[in-house]
């Protein structure tokens, strides 16, 4: 086909699906629900909408938050099927939460550690 490895092809499909979530309505439902009004953005000094992080409860401008999948898109116990990835990726609003980037980084790190533990235990 393209000369890509299976792993490269899988990560290409995953990132392409992830890009599709920018047009997924529940994502905006969750973002809108986390809005806490305009405040001065500490970095730019300008008035900007702020969002509340579901983990630490602090307020951040849009650039510093992400919409996180509460349950990882690829299960911590490993890939099951593309149908599974798609239904986890495009879940309803109750499967999503707004996190600040530092809280998201901590969650991702913990999930990756669990993935490694699981692989080792097999
Ligand atoms: Zn946070």
Helix and strand arrangement:
Layout (H helix, E strand, L loop, with lengths): L5 H15 L4 H9 L1 E6 L6 E6 L6 E3 L3 E5 L12 H8 L6 E5 H21 L1
Antiparallel strand pairs: 1-2, 2-3, 4-5
The structure holds zinc ion (ZN).
Zinc ion binds next to strand 5 and helix 4.
Describe the structure.
This protein is α+β, with helices and mostly antiparallel strands. It is built from four helices and five strands, in the order H-H-E-E-E-E-H-E-H. It starts with 5 loop residues before the first helix and ends with a helix. Helices cover 43% and strands 20% of the residues. The model has no long low-confidence stretch (mean pLDDT 94). The protein has a three-stranded antiparallel beta sheet with strand order 1-2-3. A two-stranded antiparallel sheet has the order 4-5. The protein has helices at residues 6-20, 25-33, 82-89, 101-121; strands at residues 35-40, 47-52, 59-61, 65-69, 96-100. A hairpin with a 6-residue loop joins strand 1 (35-40) and strand 2. The structure holds zinc ion. Residues 53, 55-56, 58, 99-100, 102-103 line the site of zinc ion.
């Amino acid at each position: 086909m393209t000369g890509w490895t299976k792993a490269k092809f899988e990560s290409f499909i995953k990132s392409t699906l992830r890009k599709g979530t920018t047009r997924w309505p529940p994502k905006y439902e969750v973002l809108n629900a986390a809005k806490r009004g305009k405040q001065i953005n500490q970095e730019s000094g300008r008035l900007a909408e702020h969002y509340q992080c579901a983990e630490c409860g602090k307020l951040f401008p849009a650039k510093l938050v992400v919409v996180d999948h509460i349950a990882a898109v690829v299960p911590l116990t490993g890939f099951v099927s593309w149908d599974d990835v798609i239904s986890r990726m495009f879940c309803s609003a109750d499967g999503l939460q707004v996190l600040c980037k530092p809280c998201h980084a901590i969650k991702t790190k913990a999930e990756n550690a669990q993935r490694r533990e699981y692989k080792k235990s097999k």
